[in-house]
Amino acid sequence: MIESRIQQLIEALNVSVLEFARQLGEHRGEKVYHILHGRMKPRYDTLEKILVAYPQVNGDWLMRGEGLMFKVLDSPSAAITVEERLRNMEFLLFQLNQRMALLQETNDLLRTDIEQMRQERNHRS
Predict the structure, then answer these.
(1) Which domain holds residue 120?
(2) CA end-to-end span of the chain
(3) Per the structure, how many domains does the chain have?
(4) In which domain of life is the source organism classified (predicted)?
(5) Which domain CATH number covers 48?
(6) pTM here?
């Protein structure tokens, strides 16, 4: 969910919610707090402000959860820090672990289904 990605971004940037909100042009953090707690969905202009305030953030990741949290750019002036690269790696590992857990759960369910089908077939024979 986009709320959790914004929370992850705030944590990865190592800023407070209030500082994050101020970078978006908000005087108080209420709007961001409402988004983080699911009371409000972020509007397009809010997402655009995040990407303008933090140009190192990958828009595909922010909006759809695809790819890395931070852009990996080739130009030296736009290079991300080692810390941001590490956060990218940590996030990728987190995503991989989640996918592995889901695949394991699916695999276990399929094994159970196959075993039940075998038992039903054996009872009919």
Answers:
(1) 2-124
(2) 49
(3) 1
(4) Bacteria
(5) 1.10.260
(6) 0.59
